[in-house]
Design brief:
Blueprint (H helix, E strand, L loop, with lengths): L2 E7 L17 H21 L4 E6 L7 H7 L3 E4 L18 H12 L4 E5 L3 E3 L4 H6 L4 E5 L7 H13 L9 E9 H20 L10 H15 L4 E3 L4 E3 L8 E2 L9 E3 L7 H12 L5 H7 L3 E2 L6 H16 L2
Length: about 325
Amino acid sequence: MANLIINAFAFKENYKTSMQLGGNMDEKKLALYMENIFVSLKSAAIHNPDDTVMLVVNKEVPEPYRSLFKEENIRVKTIEFDNFVMPETFVWSLAFFKLCALFHVVTEEDYDNFLLLDADTVTMHEYDEMWEECKTGVILYPLGHAYHHHDRERIRTDYRKLYEDDLNIVHYGGEYVCGNRLSMKQFMEECQSVYHRMEEKKFCVDDHTGDETILSIAAARMQAVCKSEVIAATPYLYRYWTNDFYLISTNVIYNPVCIWHLPDEKEHAMEYFYHYYRRKKRFPEVKKCARIAGIRIAKRPWNYYTLQYKAAGKLKKIFGK
């Protein structure tokens, strides 16, 4: 079974970068993205040594990262940004390159299964179960937003601007798309159909529309029209908002997910992981990664009876009674 794991990165003049970083691309931000990409793909490769990792770009990767990627067996594929091109005034316009990249690799590369990951992800465990599950359909990451959550509401409003009917749209994240060759081809065709609808309607959607809008609408239409299965990625990936929320997590050590998405850690934990690897040729162990990324591991507070029981155990070890 041949599996391909990709990151995608695009550069276009006058187009904005990630909203977490703000502004247009410069050398410092370019270096930051290259280092995040390295962590994402190298950590995936370490835990899945039989799989291929690849960066898909629309421009040549600058040195010293081009040599580093080659040295660490990270493939680089250069393509044209010729699909899913949104108006440059849209806040997330460059993020749509992920869909362009995924469309290219699914149609051009000879693999059984495909996984698209955002650059600000780090892999902690092997993907064996995920590859097994994606045989049955496309796996997407549901964000768990309630019906009237503002982000989900925006997608539902965009849908009504584009189509005559009304569907219950689940909001899926753009940091993760996984599937086998057949289901992924079908899903990308549906994504392209949604994009062409936007073109026909002269991009009448909200200018904060992102790639998540196309993914979410395509998933809803694929389920409703094609009766295809969309599987929740929650056993395999979690999005940790480490600065906006104080997180106590149960999916780091106990029933752990394979992939951590760290949107607030591009300039912090992800940078730490990059420089740690460059020094030691390995990444930190899981508990240290959690501390660095600001993820607290769940622990039950000790009540009186727990403390009494533990103290008795310690005394028994010391005095043998």
